[in-house]
């Protein structure tokens, strides 16, 4: 096969410029990234060889080798791991940000400080080689195949792929160093970098060829060491390796479980959201080892989906070494390990949440992962109580985050429910007419903006015998929750009951096919009208979500509530009592309904009719004003 020239699947010239000049504060970390990739390749071969021993038979002693050539000015990082074929090369080295390249590139702003964090989430470690190289050559052969391949690029927009002969199994990354990067040809410099960043790698990292090659690391799995032997810096570098991350871990959890089942866990909670946190597959990224042998990083059932933000390793002493991924799904030992992991992780998170000195740090964690953690409320009944302790909310009663215990402790006399409202945006919810009466009485309302909120609340239903109740449903009895300092409304502000009855009847007659009912509202103080769902109907925000995702075709009719103390409603009450249903009142009725729809973020069914009625009302108002 002749040499084939291909283009990168992204604006590589722009991206590589950011990688080369902004992504890392220290150039030396390119070596960390390449060693991590080599370690992963060896781990994957070791797992594959459990069921296909012939894959590693030719060279079973897995290691990572660094070599230099001062005359050619090259540094090579080589492994005898699983290797790549042509398709792997193009997919892994020709595509930056494999999960949605276009979306990824669109997020880049050109602001280096902002872009650094984003790029660091998309696994571009290999491209850090271009920080110190004018050209990178990759020679590789996949385990079980005979054909070797050569990949070459100067990082300026394209690369070449061609067949190569006499390539050993694994991958060799050969960097042709820039003129001013000669320091990376020195053995002592490479040794210091390996000991700083990669000492935890559980494979031998050697320098040189043959029997004279010198070991550069301890080659012992970090999680097997005692905690008092590990420095914070070593934990951080292991997190970078195992999580392919660039931030610092927000929480580090390292423990050994002993008893009927023995396993060691070294798990991290990231400080920032992983880019794949909301992928539909909801997979975790915790690696499973059996007696220090890598098995898989896709062990279904090892970590529940609502803890998928965790990074790290779990090493079992009891699972069979030749366990397959299919057998893992039904292994009772794995279920017990999972239970232990969940109990420990939630326990450590509860300690953080309960520590007043950690309130700000916990708020950061909650903003990052709260929406994911809430999935456990309807998926994991066994641990629901612990998860509930972790919940934090924005509310109408406080600026910061509030726990359910805080909320219940501040409930008003006569209040028997935990009130909440769901929507897409906090600021919009704060201005919602449905919460006006609650705010007037000092009743706190939870402001919920995560789609998952629509699903866990019906599942949980109550907390400490207080039911969750949406303020957008009818039947909110606020009369029993009168605040002590609430002023009594003047009698002249309240229309007579008979007059109100006439207005309600007129509105019902006019809007008969558009609303389920018209009622006098207790919840409104400033707005003239609002829409609410009937007690047995679906919440309005949930209905909109389902319709957006084409899970629902029909809409339930809503109840129109009117504010009897609003000047507009008082004026309409007088007109209804005097003239009954007139053309003018009909137009105003439809305008009020459309206004309520707009506030709810719903579409107006007939924009032309709305525009006509609005123009008529404005014309009448202007003429009256001019005449006066």
Automatic annotation (TrEMBL):
Q: Where does ATP bind?
A: 33, 37, 79, 84, 92, 99-100, 121-126, 171, 325
The superkingdom listed in its UniProt entry is Bacteria
InterPro entries according to UniProt: HATPase_C_sf (IPR036890), HATPase_dom (IPR003594), HSP90_C (IPR037196), Hsp90_fam (IPR001404), Hsp90_N (IPR020575), Ribosomal_Su5_D2-typ_SF (IPR020568)
Q: Which residues form a coiled coil?
A: none
Cellular compartments per GO CC: cytoplasm
Q: What is its main location?
A: cytoplasm
**Subcellular localization, as worded in the UniProt entry:** Cytoplasm
Annotated keywords? ATP-binding, Chaperone, Cytoplasm, Nucleotide-binding, Stress response
Which GO terms of the molecular function aspect are on file?
ATP binding; ATP hydrolysis activity; ATP-dependent protein folding chaperone; unfolded protein binding
Looking at the UniProt entry, the stretches that span the membrane are none
What range(s) does the Histidine kinase/HSP90-like ATPase domain occupy?
26-181
Annotated segments matching region A: 1-325
Q: Where is this region: C?
A: 545-628
Q: What family does the Swiss-Prot or TrEMBL record give for this protein? A: Belongs to the heat shock protein 90 family.
Q: How does it assemble?
A: Homodimer.
Function comment: Molecular chaperone. Has ATPase activity.
Supply the name of the protein.
Chaperone protein HtpG
Please report the organism this UniProt entry assigns to the protein: Skermanella aerolata
- Give the encoding gene's name: htpG
